[in-house]
User: Fold this.
Amino acid sequence: MAPRDRVGMQLRDRPEFKSKPKPVTFREDATVAEAVAVMSAKNFGAVVVVDDDEKVIGVVTERDIMIKIVNAGRDPKQTKLGDIMTREVKVARETDDVLDWMRVMSNERFRRLPVVDADGRIMAVFTQGDFVSYTWPDLLHQAKQLALATMGRSYHLWMILGGVLLYTLLMVLVLRWV
Assistant:
């Protein structure tokens, strides 16, 4: 995602960014059982699969385990994370806009967003829950900034519309008095 030319809150500006625990990472040759043990101990809903350079190559969620292991009757001790992970993972940069990612996650129906540094290494995982804490005042501020920016670009149209409305009001008042 590329930042837009408007005022917006970046992912790194969210309070959750600095306070998030380090994501749990595994290589793709680790077993599902190994990942489940750590997920259970840490109460995490997903693990990030990384390559030797710590770059994100996949994600395995509780839902993946439920559908691809439990429901399919596969052995978690024999199944590798690489066999069940989601490979085409969307990743964000810490400087990306919060509203852009809220929209993408909502439209594309995924709940976990790995955030990477400039080298593509995992820094944090944002969840939909992190975005739910994006408060109404934040959203109203964003809407106000967007409206002001939009109005500024179409100032001449607002002046014409205002002039027409003022002329109409004056004509109604004049015709009432006549």
